[in-house]
Amino acid sequence: MADFKTHVTVAAVLCAPLAASTFIMGFSNMHEAIFYALAGTLGGLLPDIDADESIAIRLVFRLFGALAAGLSIAIGMDQFIHWQLLALAISSYLVVRFPIQWVFEQLTVHRGALHSLLANLMFTAVAVPIAYHAFSLEAKTAWGIGGFTFIGSTIHLILDELYSVELSGMRVKRSFGTAMKLTDWGEPLASLVFVLICALGYWFSPSAEAWSVALDWLPELVNLSEWIVQKING
Questions:
Q1: Amino acid 168: pLDDT
Q2: What's residue 122's pLDDT?
Q3: 59 in Cβ contact with 35 (< 8 Å)
Q4: DSSP E strand boundaries for the chain
Q5: What is the Cα Rg of the chain in Å?
Q6: Are 36 and 19 in contact (CB under 8 A)?
Q7: Ranges under pLDDT 50 in the chain
Q8: CA torsion, points 4, 9, 10, 16, in degrees to nearest 10?
Q9: Is 20 exposed, middle or buried (0-12, 13-18, 19+ CB in 10 A)?
Q10: 172 - beta bridge partners?
Q11: Does residue 64 come out as left (phi exceeding 0), alpha (psi in the -120 to 50 range) or beta?
Q12: What are the Cα distances from residue 23, in Å, to 17, 126, 158, 176, 178?
């Protein structure tokens, strides 16, 4: 299994150029491309939130705690005075950071259902409405963030599988196959919950029609790539 530094580095190295290409090709502006690169890098950590002692779970729950604090301030700004608003924000952060994280740790098992493609879809389904509703980003940007979250988390699974193969001794470790899977069939309840969260996230997500222009470019990109290959082959 790859370590924290490897997951962060590889996700950033792969997602940053991909995000930059969306800017170069006119699919995004500079700020959106930066958001996409950050989403891909963060996505590269998400599957490890099922490891109780990992840096990923502490980082992710700190981010969610900060998000909860920010939302509590936005919601209570017209209802509370300053010290009450500060107390509400601090309480929201602490509730997410400790009791909710503790419950999450008790319910999850490392390399379980959260290490799967279904979980990656769930991360995407959660990222899109959060970006759209909580941060008031445009629909296209929100879906781009969701897409890069999926890419980053899938890179994580691929890395874990690659680290399960010991090339020097041509030996496959027992952990092989526990990361890159559709879902954990041994946890049907967790898989069902993920599917429900995906459906709920899609329900609250904006329309993805803004990316239809990008899809119209796909045939041209395919033709361009074929032309480049032909030129290289002479």
A1: 42
A2: 93
A3: no
A4: 165-166, 171-172
A5: 20
A6: yes
A7: 166-170, 172
A8: 140
A9: middle
A10: 165
A11: alpha
A12: 10, 24, 26, 37, 36
Segment 97-103 long-range contacts (CB within 8 Å, at least 24 positions apart): 97/61, 97/62, 97/65, 100/61, 101/57, 101/61
The reported pLDDT for the residue numbered 196 is 96
For residue 129, the surrounding DSSP H or E stretch is: helix 117-129
Q: Hunting for tokens 């890395």 — which residue is that?
A: 159
Residue the block writes with tokens 């092989």: 176
Structure tokens of 60? 């992710």
Q: How far is the C-alpha of 234 from the C-alpha of 228, rounded, in Å?
A: 10
Integer CA distances (angstroms), 211 to 16, 17, 139, 184, 219, in order: 20, 19, 9, 32, 15
For residues 81 and 96, give the distance between their C-alpha atoms in angstroms, rounded to a whole number: 23
Beta bridge partners of 171: 166
- pLDDT value at position 108? 67
Q: Could you tell me how many residues make up the chain?
A: 234
3-state secondary structure of 172: strand
132 exposure class (CB count in 10 Å sphere: 0-12, 13-18, 19+): buried
Determine what percent of the chain falls in helix, strand and coil, rounding each to the nearest 5: 75, 0, 25
Calpha distance 141→208 (Å, rounded): 10
